[in-house]
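Lecture notes, unit on protein representations.

Consider one protein chain, 286 amino acids long.
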Amino acid sequence: MKPNRPEHPAPPDADARRNVAPVICYPVNNLPPADVAAYRAARNGWRKVTDVRVPPREARCFEVPAGWFFRIVSVEGPQVGDLNLWAANDLGERFFSGKTRALHGTHLSTGDRLWSSLPHLRPMATITEDTLDWYGFDAHGGSVHDVIGTRCDPYTHRLLAGADYHHCGHSNLTRALADHQQNPRNGVEPAVHDVLNVFMCTGVTRDTGQYFMKASPVRPGDFLEFFAEIDLLGALSACPGGDCSTEHSSDAATCYPLLVEVYEPKGAPSGWAPPTRNGYRGGHGP
């Protein structure tokens, strides 16, 4: 955190230094935009193939073939979720929240893509509808569906609270992935990664730069919809913080289930093809 009371005096040109115009780190002018209209047109005549109910304070895995859709749906009460994505046949290719944040911003919505880890760096999924897009950014700088936070985990809980808690997002996702892969938990744990915080309302304080959460605006019937750009394995945790209005990593908050719905369209979106791996040839210099 930046200190509230700096130890060093400001130089005479402090205001001039602070007022330098910001530069966008990753201009996206050359990034092909998602053809949301084409994706949505492909929904005509689709059929729901399966749904996966994620119990409170637990996680479940699901699979989505390339060219299909999936929705994360609020079904009983305000509840946030932690989403992990992997290439279905390679746990080494996983959702890269940091690069997604650099390309699309701190909070995601319709038309934004979830990018995969290096050296793959390709779209894994594209958001095609967001019923909470009306929220925007509030007076505190908060918004929904963030890629700022990581996921609550037992290691940080032990560090800050001095106790063990096994139903945090990291542990939930680890158990779900281990069950799906039929592998030991300690074997799959390294594949669990930073998440898309679905429905979570978060921001960063202006005075101390701390990550904050507040009550999610999600209500039953709200959903976040994705188009699978590649064959996906997903895992979703129903956060132990419920709507994250008070605390997380405990059994104190009221929690609700979440629902994942998987849809098969009649055909691929017009002009769509699965993305290939990033074209960088490697070598990292002479």
